[in-house]
Write a structure and sequence with these properties.
By secondary structure, the protein is of the alpha/beta class. It has helices at 12-30, 41-65, 73-103, 118-128, 165-171, 189-198, 211-214, 245-263, 265-278, 339-346, 353-358, 407-419, 423-439; strands spanning 109-114, 135-142, 158-161, 176-179, 203-205, 222-228, 231-237, 284-290, 296-302, 363-365, 391-393.
């Protein structure tokens, strides 16, 4: 005593089994077990924190649905802190030890480059700038017949011609093969790739997309190599759709929205009754909104204005305080006295949007969905805020003076969210949103 009961009530052995299963699945999914050679330690440490946070979230949901109410929160908190600390520490020790070993010439991998041109030189330069990765350039292979009378200007050591690749692979220690020249410029390249494949050596091909030729460099998006309908393709994306953690975001959206609709059933009824008694008209306000990439959907809110408030917008156009397409009035005369003001200040009028989240039209966190007439006045760069699923809350809604922020800064905040999206950022926004709700700063 007092800690002796941890092993008996509740069953912490069962809790340990749950942790092992959850941690292993999440760690495998997040790349925690991948080699360190091509990753800086900062990325590894951040991945540990992100992965353990996701594990904790899933564990909390499992404990809730399993009704294991007697589990010590302090015990779980200590476990999480120790888990993160020892994982980062052990990985740093391994990373530091491997770095020192590789810098001294041990635990290295030999790379053979096919091609001796500019792209081969760029690869060699990148490898030389990262000695801690433990890679060595064995040499390069010419891809065209050698002319001994022609002047040779190779920055890399030429150890032969590609037609000799079979013999070179058998007589040299080659761990990885990188083809730097465009494949279409090398005759019978498929035969040489097959020879390397038969020996079990990994082959990396540097595709020629023509980007360097046209001088293209993405200003906002990220270039990725993907398979599209079985065909290799270079994609340019500005949203985190290809991030594997986006599936976890969707899972959280559906789970939390379903759970929220159950937990808030009684408050829903109380708010619905208050709206009905305070003003004529329907309980819910249904508004046409623009979702991801221009999709139209019906957004649900508790009605906080007089019935027919939309028809009064043209009359009140002169009172609009927004400098952009959005329509906002500090003391809107259409708001229902008392009930409407209370719902807006506490943001409780947004609760029905959990239905939109459950339908897949919205997310818990994301740019706020605009009205159809608002996007008609968008500039081209402002439309990018539609490239991600809209949300109930966003960075703008967590700002102290959100109602005084100009529309341009509002859009910039949304784009900042899209460009830097992560589960950690979503969690931070949700936590700040609860603080804003408690302060009743809504309007």
């Amino acid at each position: 005593p007092p800690l002796g009961g941890l092993s008996t009530e509740p069953n912490y052995y069962l809790l340990l089994l749950q942790c092992i299963i959850i941690w292993y699945i999440v760690f495998s999914f997040s790349g925690m077990y991948e080699p360190y050679r091509r990753r800086p330690f900062v990325n590894i440490a951040f991945n540990v924190i992100k992965s353990v946070s996701v594990c904790l979230l899933i564990l909390a949901m499992v404990l809730f649905f399993a009704k294991m109410d007697t589990v010590s929160r302090l015990f779980v908190g200590i476990f999480i802190l120790l888990n993160i600390f020892f994982l980062i520490s052990s990985k740093w020790i391994a990373y530091f030890a491997l770095t020192q070993i590789r810098k001294k010439g041990y635990n290295y991998r030999n790379i053979l480059i096919v091609g001796c041109g500019r792209r081969a030189k760029d690869i060699a330069k990148s490898i030389a700038g990262q000695p801690e990765s433990g890679y060595r350039i064995l040499g390069c292979l010419e891809t065209t017949p050698s002319d001994e009378s022609a002047p040779q200007d190779h920055a890399l050591t030429v150890i032969g011609n590609i037609c000799e690749i079979q013999n070179i692979l058998e007589t040299h220690v080659v761990d990885e093969l990188i083809i730097s020249d465009p494949l279409w410029t090398i005759p019978d390249i498929d035969k040489y790739i097959y020879k390397a494949e038969k020996t079990g050596i990994p082959v990396y091909m540097m595709p020629e997309w023509g980007l360097s030729r046209i001088g293209f460099a993405p200003k906002v998006g990220k270039l990725r190599f993907e398979m599209i309908f079985g065909r290799p393709c270079l994609s340019l994306t500005t949203t985190p759709d290809t991030d594997p953690w986006i599936y976890m975001k969707n899972f959280i959206d559906y789970s939390v929205s379903a759970l929220g609709l159950v937990l808030f059933a009684i408050p829903f009824l109380m708010i619905a009754l208050a709206v009905k008694l305070s003003s004529r008209g329907p309980v819910f306000y249904k508004s046409k909104r623009i979702g991801r990439n221009g999709r139209k959907f019906i957004l649900y809110k508790f009605r906080t204005m007089l019935d027919g408030a939309d028809q009064m917008k043209n009359v009140l156009a002169g009172m609009n305080e927004s400098d952009g397409p959005a329509f906002k009035i500090r003391k809107d005369p259409r708001i229902i006295p008392w009930v409407g003001n209370f719902l807006r200040k506490t943001s409780l009028d947004e609760l029905p949007q959990l239905i939109n989240v459950l339908k897949g039209e919205m997310s818990l966190v994301g740019p706020r969905p605009p009205l159809p007439e608002e996007i008609l006045d968008y500039d081209a760069w402002q439309r990018r805020r539609l490239s991600m699923k809209p949300g109930i809350t966003c960075i703008w809604q967590t700002c102290r003076d959100r109602n005084d922020i100009c529309f341009t800064d509002w859009v910039k905040m949304d784009l900042e969210y899209i460009d830097n999206w992560s589960l950690r950022l979503d969690l931070a926004i949700l936590i700040k949103t609860f603080g804003v709700v408690l302060k009743m700063n809504g309007r």
